[in-house]
Amino acid sequence: MSIDLAIIPDDQENTEIAQELLAKLKGVDVNVHILPPGVKERVPTPFVRDETGYKHFGIEGINHFVQKRLQQANPAIE
Predict the structure, then answer these.
(1) Can you list the domains of the chain with their CATH numbers?
(2) Which domain of life is it from (predicted)?
């Protein structure tokens, strides 16, 4: 499975958090895309685009995406 991570270069803290969250997913290729700085005012960043094309915005959205995938991989996790 391959997903896209869109980041803003000057948002180092959130970029690191997003990468740490995505590192929990085993066997997933993460393609990093650097967005121009002006995008930050229009779109919550960072964001992940999953294999279906759906976008998960911000750290909370990425965390929800990761937790959902982890639960799907191991239904015993609550």
Answers:
(1) 2-73 (3.40.30.10)
(2) Bacteria
First to last CA, the chain: 23
Residue 31 main-chain phi, psi, to 5 deg: -95, 120
Summarize pLDDT for 13-69 with one digit per residue, the tens. Answer: 999 999 999 999 998 999 999 999 788 788 889 999 999 999 999 999 999 999 999
Query: pTM to 2 decimals?
Result: 0.87
Report how far residue 61's alpha carbon sits from residue 44's, in angstroms, rounded to the nearest whole number: 10
Q: What CA–CA distances, in Å, run from 66 to 39, 54, 70?
A: 24, 14, 6
Token representation of residue 10? 């000057």
Mapped onto helix, strand or coil, the DSSP state of residue 65 is helix
Cα–Cα dist 20/46, whole Å: 13
